[in-house]
Design brief:
The protein has a two-stranded antiparallel ribbon with strand order 1-2. It has 113 residues and is an alpha+beta fold. It has 3 helices and 2 strands; from the N terminus they run βαααβ. The longest helix has 15 residues.
Length: 113
């Protein structure tokens, strides 16, 4: 998560089994989780392939370090494209899934009539 002020931190949200493999609990048993976001906050979701990606020298990809300075004025798609390029530059031989999703909270402004 990156706050509107630019602070990046890992959330304490629980992970789960891979989707689509029949390993997840039924939707009836799924636990609902609510997370409060302020205007401008972002939530970056990743798969384990991103978190476990390593360079040729065995170093893990520094996701938080690379994400923190991403320009906020750019659309989320641009931020994701830059992170993806950085990931493949540092870990050119990804051996696992690697997906990134960026959610930016930008509530609509309602204008008085």
């Amino acid at each position: 998560m990156r706050s509107a002020a630019g602070r990046v931190r890992e959330t304490d949200l629980p992970g789960g089994p891979p989707l689509g493999l029949g390993l997840s609990r039924s939707l009836q048993d799924a636990e609902e989780i609510t997370m409060a976001l302020a205007e401008g906050d972002e939530l970056l979701l990743t798969t384990d392939g991103v978190l476990e990606a390593r360079s040729a020298s065995g170093e893990f990809f520094p996701l938080a370090e690379r994400y923190a300075p991403a320009p906020r004025e750019r659309p989320p798609a641009d931020v994701l494209a830059a992170l993806r390029r950085d990931l493949t530059d540092r870990a050119p031989e990804l051996h696992d899934d690697s997906a990134l999703v960026l959610l930016r909270y930008a509530p609509r402004r309602i204008r008085p009539a």
